[in-house]
Task: inverse folding
């Protein structure tokens, strides 16, 4: 019984000191983004950046679909992979159309 109380007391002190030490020292729980230059937080949303973002999203969706298809067997798996590829191709065509449309607007 005494060992359990002592062990609990030691755990409580260790947990408290690990949270309190950085705060007392003055460098804990600080927002590190406060000192970053503003340009680091501006998102580049030009036509090329939008296209690259759409490509990444399409690839991630395709990868997720393929992972889901791996759980299937036989014809269901084949149909699933075919649909995943079709969706990926459609997403990529859409991204290219959006990119081309934006580039056309910028040239005119």
Result:
């Amino acid at each position: 019984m005494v060992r359990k109380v002592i062990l609990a007391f030691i755990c409580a002190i260790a947990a408290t000191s690990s949270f309190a030490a950085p705060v007392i020292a003055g460098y804990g729980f600080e927002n590190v983004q406060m000192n970053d230059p503003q340009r680091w937080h501006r998102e580049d949303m030009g036509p090329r950046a939008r296209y690259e973002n759409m490509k990444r999203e399409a690839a991630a969706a395709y990868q997720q679909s393929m992972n889901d298809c791996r759980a299937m067997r036989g014809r269901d798996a084949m149909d699933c992979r075919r649909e995943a590829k079709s969706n990926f191709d459609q997403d990529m065509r859409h991204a290219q159309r959006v990119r081309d449309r934006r580039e056309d607007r910028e040239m005119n």
